[in-house]
Structure prediction request, 305 residues.
Amino acid sequence: MTDQYYYMDAANQNIGPLSWDVIEQLHGAGTLNDGTLVAQEGASDWITFAEAKTNKENRQALPPVPGKQAQGGSSGLRETSRGRKKSSRPRRAVIKVIVICTALLLIIGALFLIPRGGSDVISPKRVDPGEIAGRIEAMPPIHLPAPGSPVDDPDYMRLVTGENTVQVRAIPDQPDLYQIDVTRYGVIYGMLNRPKFHRDLLTVLLTLGTRFEKGEWVLLEGKGGAHHSISRPGDISPEVTTIENLPQDEIRWHGQFIIDYLNGVTPDAHIEALSASEYDSLHSAFEKDQRLRSELRMRGIPQPK
Prediction:
């Protein structure tokens, strides 16, 4: 197994564990710098990225794990190794039986006992449409690549959504069918196939046709439009674009987050932390460039290309 590492982000939060290759990719993308604190899993002290890289190049071990001390020392292992030789095999057999039985019980429960949507599903059988709308409006922000962006390029579009205006209505004479009207707001940073770095303030209006069946929500169809307000560092006014009819794949991309949330599906915390960090880096870079160009414009100095 490869060595795993943590790094300290701008909010002094521990992010990880990550492989060294990912740490180097984040450094190359500008999320980390030479002074960013990192630590190998199992360490008690933090060191800078530059020191960690030197240690890796010299094939030196990093200091122990932050907050995770190794259990037992070598002397303790020597003292108990003889006494364990006779009993290790029976114990291993018992552990294997327990693991197999537990796995079988979990599989059986997942197939026959647990509803498909899980216990966290926001069910219209128990919650009225007004409360469902309130739950959607309170969805937490999500940071992730926007549709069409290359996932391996951290400097390309990061979308944060979480502010929603919602109305949920049951369809008359159509049991288990619901219409969900959502206005979602987001911010996109990146190149977007344009010559300059930009910030896109996005508003998406969705009308989603959904069904609640077999204990979970299903997205049936949708329609919607979008309003973009794109600004670039140095521009006085943003470029405004309105799209009346979004492509179906983009509507479903936005709508599926609503459906997943209603079904109790939560984003992977590790991926969300990494994406949020990359988004913050893009936000900081844009704001810094914006301040620089605004100051130059006030002084009458030509804008850099």
Q: What stands out?
A: Helices lie at 20-28, 49-57, 74-85, 88-113, 129-137, 248-262, 269-299. Residues 67-89, 108-118 have pLDDT under 50 and may be disordered. The chain has seven helices and ten strands.
